[in-house]
Write a structure and sequence with these properties.
- 30% of the residues lie in helices and 24% in strands.
- The chain starts with a helix and ends in a 6-residue tail after the last helix.
Length: 380
C-alpha cells in the first residue's frame, strides 16, 4: 500500500513538471518577451546558425526583430552556433545600474535528436568561394528550454555615454533568448547554393594576403582605396576599433564556440574599460577559412565602432541599419583584395565582380536587404 502511495506521488509530481512547460510560438514570445521570462517553454520553429546569428525564427511575425536568440547551457560543448558575435557587458567600472539576475540552471538533454540537430546546424555549405558562416542546412524542430525575456536596449545619456545595457545575442539586440533543454521532431532542408557554386567555381577561399593579422589586413585594404577616401576611412575605423598589443581598450577578442549562455555574462565583467563598457568580440576560427577571418574582423570592427563611437546622427541605430552598414564595409574589404565573389548564408550572393559596373551598387543593396529580410529575419 505504501509503495502504491509513493508511486502515486511520483505520477502527480511528474504531471506537475509537465504542466510547467508552456506551449507558445515565436511570435507570441517576441510580442511580450518579459511575460515569459524564466518560464520553460515549448516552441516549434526554424533554426539558423550562420555568420552572427543563432536564432529560432518565424517570418510571419510583425516585429522589428522577428527571432529568438538561441543558446546552449553553459558547459554543453555543442558544435553549432554563430561564427562571429559582439556582446556588450558592463565593465568593472561601469557607472550605470546593473540589476542582479538569477536564472534557474538548465541541463541539456543530449539525446539522439539533439545530436542530429546540432550536427545538421554545424555542417558547412560546400562551395569554392568565400561564404561567411554558411551552413548547409536549415533545421526545423520542437524546442524546449528556459526563456529569458528583457527589454533589449543600449541606453545612452545626453552626452552619448552608454549608461544601461540589456538584451541577448549579437549586439544585445534580442529581447528573447531560449536556453535549450531538449529537442524533438527534427527535420532539415538543404539550402540551395547552386548560384554561388557556379559563380565561384574557380575561386579559392584562401585568396588574398594578410589573414595572419586580420586588423593589419584591413589597414592594407584601406590603403588600396586611399586612406583619405570614404571607403579607406571606414576600413581604418574598423581596424582602429580593435586594441593594440597589451592595450586595455575594453575590447576583448576571444576565439572558440560562441553558443553558450554563461552566467558571468549577466553581471559586471572583471575588467575595467575607458568608457565603462566591455565589447566582447568572439570568432569561431574553425569556421573561418583563409581570409574569411579578415572579412569577419572588418564586419565586427564596424559594429564596435558604430556602437562605441557612433557618428553624429547615428547614435541610436537599430540592428537592421547596424547590420546593413557592417555588410557594406565587409564588401569594401573583399573588393580591395580583388575577391571575385562573396556569398552569405542562404546562398545570397553579396558580391560578384562579374556584375556590370553600372549595376553593382543596386545589386549589392538588393542583396543586403534580401539577406536581412530572409535570413536574419529583420525588418527595418
Amino acid at each position: 500500500m505504501k509503495r502504491l502511495f509513493l508511486l502515486g506521488l511520483v505520477c502527480v509530481f511528474s504531471s506537475c513538471l509537465q504542466a510547467q512547460v508552456v506551449d507558445t510560438t515565436v511570435c507570441d514570445v517576441i510580442k511580450n518577451p518579459t511575460s515569459f521570462n524564466g518560464k520553460i517553454v515549448r516552441i516549434k520553429g526554424t533554426v539558423t546558425a550562420d555568420f552572427d546569428q543563432f536564432v529560432v525564427k518565424n517570418a510571419t511575425c510583425d516585429e522589428r526583430v522577428n527571432s529568438i536568440w538561441l543558446s546552449y547551457p553553459e558547459g554543453s560543448k555543442a558544435k553549432s552556433g554563430p561564427v562571429a558575435i559582439l556582446e556588450l557587458q558592463p565593465a568593472a567600472n561601469f557607472t550605470g545600474t546593473v540589476p542582479a539576475v538569477t536564472r534557474t540552471p538548465v541541463t541539456l538533454d543530449k539525446s539522439k535528436d539533439f545530436k542530429q540537430f546540432d550536427s545538421l546546424l554545424a555542417a558547412p555549405a560546400k562551395l569554392n568561394g568565400m561564404c561567411l558562416g554558411c551552413g548547409r542546412y536549415e533545421v526545423s524542430a520542437t524546442l524546449v528550454g528556459r526563456l529569458d525575456g528583457v527589454d533589449a536596449k543600449i541606453g545612452r545619456d545626453k552626452s552619448g555615454k552608454i549608461v544601461s545595457i540589456s538584451g541577448f545575442g549579437n549586439m544585445n539586440q534580442f529581447s528573447a533568448r531560449l536556453v535549450l533543454q531538449s529537442v524533438s521532431d527534427v527535420t532539415s532542408k538543404e539550402i540551395d547554393y547552386s548560384t554561388a557554386v557556379a559563380a565561384s567555381k574557380e575561386e579559392s577561399t584562401a585568396a588574398g594576403p594578410g589573414s595572419a593579422d586580420p586588423v593589419e589586413a584591413n589597414r592594407k585594404a584601406a590603403a588600396a582605396y586611399g586612406v583619405t577616401t570614404d571607403p579607406g576611412k571606414d576600413l581604418i575605423r574598423c581596424a582602429d576599433a580593435f586594441p593594440k598589443p597589451k592595450e586595455n581598450s575594453g575590447v576583448i577578442v576571444f576565439n572558440g564556440n560562441l553558443n553558450e549562455a554563461a552566467a558571468k555574462d549577466d553581471a559586471k565583467g572583471a575588467k575595467e574599460s575607458p568608457d565603462g563598457v566591455l565589447y566582447n568580440v568572439g570568432f569561431n576560427t574553425n569556421r573561418l577559412s583563409g581570409d574569411a577571418i579578415v572579412r569577419a574582423y572588418a564586419h565586427m570592427g564596424k559594429h564596435v565602432a558604430d556602437l562605441r563611437t557612433p557618428e553624429k546622427g547615428n547614435e541610436n541605430l537599430g540592428i537592421y541599419d547596424l547590420e546593413f552598414r557592417a555588410w557594406s564595409t565587409t564588401i569594401m574589404g573583399a573588393v580591395a583584395y580583388g575577391q571575385k565573389t562573396l556569398t552569405l548564408p542562404g546562398g545570397i550572393m553579396l558580391w560578384n565582380n562579374a556584375w556590370a559596373t553600372a549595376d553593382r551598387n543596386n545589386f549589392v543593396e538588393k542583396a543586403i536587404k534580401g539577406f536581412l529580410r530572409s535570413q536574419e529575419i529583420l525588418s527595418r
